[in-house]
Amino acid sequence: MDTKTLIVTGASRGIGAVTSVRAARAGFDVVVNCLRDEAAAERVAAAVRAEGRRALVVRADVATEAGVLALFEACDRTFGRLDALVNNAGVVDAAQRVDEMSAARLARMFTTNAVGPMLCAREAVRRMSTRHGGAGGAIVNVSSAAARLGSPNQYVDYAASKAAIDTFTKGLALEVAAEGVRVNAVRPGIIDTEIHASGGQPERVRQLAPTVPMRRAGSADEVAAAIVWLLSDDAAYVTGAIVDVTGGR
Prior knowledge:
Blueprint: E1 4-8, H1 14-25, E2 28-34, H2 38-50, E3 55-59, H3 65-79, E4 84-87, H4 103-128, E5 137-142, H5 146-149, H6 156-176, E6 181-188, H7 195-198, H8 204-208, H9 220-231, E7 242-245
Parallel strand pairs: 1-2, 1-4, 2-3, 4-5, 5-6, 6-7
Helix pairs in contact: 1-2, 1-9, 3-4, 4-6
């Protein structure tokens, strides 16, 4: 069976890093995208290679069209094919009310969390859709339980950007369902990753874990397991789905 090729955006840490390694274990060669930390991305690539798969690190800002094009063109040059995309790259910001937010913050949030994934999906569809001569494939978007909960007094803007991803997932799934491309999403809940510290809340996981019905935070590996299942042939009849990985929250 031919090895499939996967692009994972924001793959140098957290959910993206673990997804890259799990996907390699499932038989994918992996394009490991990062924004800045190439050393961390190279460690992920080394872990992919340790699973017997090929890896390519591409430093590119997927919040820009130029960065998205550079990422996909690098995949084309190295692997000559694309079978799957995980839209994982995203940002949070410091806790703020909406009446305190700047236009610059809102632009950054929506450009990174919504526009970037849409551009990546556009490029993936152009390569995978049978309408464009492709052989089909799968896209998994990483949303958030915040899309359902709204995140008042923390980051309503982040929640809204992820709600956009939910709607985009459903619409794109229907648009390309007859073209061999499946589009799904996962909605992580309170997951123990570095993203909370990057938003200025390093204690957020510890503080909120007791409020989760399962009484604990989730792990990046638990989210990655759901992502890789959605990429796999075991999910061949699943499209337009949004899978909560939230411990019941």
